[in-house]
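Recap quiz, item 2
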Amino acid sequence: MNRGVEQVSTVPIPQAAGRGPAGSGRAARWRRARAAARCAGALLAGGFIALAAIPVLVLGLAALVLSPLGDLGLPFLAVMTGLVRPLARAERRRVRMVTGAPVSEAYRPLRGSLTSRVRTLLSDVGTWRDLGWLLLQIVAGGVGLAFLAAAVVGPLFVAVVPFDFLRGAGDGKVLDLLPLGAFFTAVGWVGCRPVAKALAALSAQSLAADDAAVLRVEMAHLAETRDETVDARAAELRRIERDLHDGAQARLVSLTMSLGMAEEEFDRDPGAARQLVTEARASARTALNELRHLVRGIHPPVLTERGLGGAVEALALASAVPVEVDVALDERLPAPLESALYFVIAEAMANIGRHSGATWAFVRLWEENGKLRLMVHDDGCGGADPARGSGLRGIGSRLAAFDGKLTLSSPAGGPTELFAELPCRP
Amino acid sequence: MTSVVVVEDLLLLRDGLIRLLSTNGLDVAAAVDTGPAFLEAIDAHRPDVGLVDVRLPPTFTDEGLRTAIEARRRHPGFPVLILSQYVEQLYARELLSDGAGGVGYLLKDRVGDVRQFVDAVQRVAGGGTAMDPEVISQILARGAARRSPLAELTPRERDVLALMAEGRANAAIARRLTVTTKAVSKHIARIFDKLGLEPSDDDHRRVLAVLAYLNSNG
């Protein structure tokens, strides 16, 4: 699901420059060299992004020039924005590499017809913020490249002098390069790190979405998952209504008819009456079966009676594949969450039974740092794909309603591992 | 006359059960609607069997099942027949876990087949078992899928095993499958051989052995 918000990674970001005290010895020298190389890399990448930004800016200017001519500017604008966002995304990643801090991102989701997409684009603050950044990046990237060039060219200027003398053609003119070379080297090597950091900070400043924009995107996401939940609920009610109408209700009607006819027949033909009563009982039995099936689909009785632990235990007992269950919860979860998790686990176990060819599986549910974690693992053949199975999609949308995240690892050849994480108290 | 205590909170079903049992030669000593009242009624009336609904007030969860297990803890071997709108293997396993006979677990709809239902009540009162065919078929289906020794049984042997696990005696199985009791005995001997179970002449003990086997290896 496209949340439109840069996920805050908890993975430690490599620091651009060694923060610790500059020690001596080979290790320290190695660390400094690596930090310098990383700074140089960051400046180079910034330069490339700046270079790529130039044609994009040209497109933008074209759009500006053409906009008085009516709709002609719009395609240019659309193409430009399409190119700016990936660039901005690359820059965000670069900045995070340098400063270690993520840069927030917030764009309004684009959907619907082309015109409505363009309208969303134009009214999105993010679009215009990116344009401002584009201008800045062209300048800042250039500055970065200049420092990088100084760091490379300076030592070359210095190195050229002894070569010149060795050739014997030394007329002393190259000596003039010496101070210039020394100056470039000093500026380039000393300035590399602070400049890389300063430029990154500047980029972060101009790229970062303000809190309001981030909240707006978050809100749009919430509205979207709520709509999905409401739709799913409505569809489920319709299914239940249809099942009742065509199933149990119809059976009860036929049962009433059989009994009514039996009533008529009792005096005339007791044998026929008995036959009708038998039919009525068969109808009643089928109706009860259907109702039982339906109730299980709405809310399994064992879940009411035993909570999630007992209900999952019951699922495991009925499973064709032996399943180990470890539900470690201190207290019962809120009913809606309990029910959602039950159906998620039931679906996962049904998938294992149907597709995996597994000989063993386990289900583990536990609480950690205020989050509920669910892991379903099997030793089957793998290759599960959420894009193809409606079951996995259903699992995803059930979890999304509780702000849960689903991760699936299922390489061909197995094993398959489904991992979900969601807040304990929605 | 076999005396019964009925525990059912829904008036409609309680009255129906009382009528059905008393018109079929059973004595309904008491009909109550909660677990504690059931335990009191056992002490007061010393019935032959308790007929218990799984879901009872005040929690409307598995109060009935817990009460039944409690009753058997207080009076070891006290026969109980659990009735429920649905059957769950988990519960069957808990009911059978004390290894004693006199246990029944049936879907409420089975009441519709009056003769068989009354027969099941009598059987449980006499220390036998009455497991719902649905419980047994679930266990057998799982066993077949898991490639346990159950998968090696012939279809006829599976039929015999299912009926035996429901708690029926040889004669009843023979009637049901329209074969001779001798044929049934032969089938049972082969089943016990394939599953590696100790043969026994006692019907009840044999059924319990089969159920224990199904619960652990199915």
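The first helix of chain A runs from residue 25 to 66.
Chain A has three domains: 25-209, 224-298, 306-423.
End of item.
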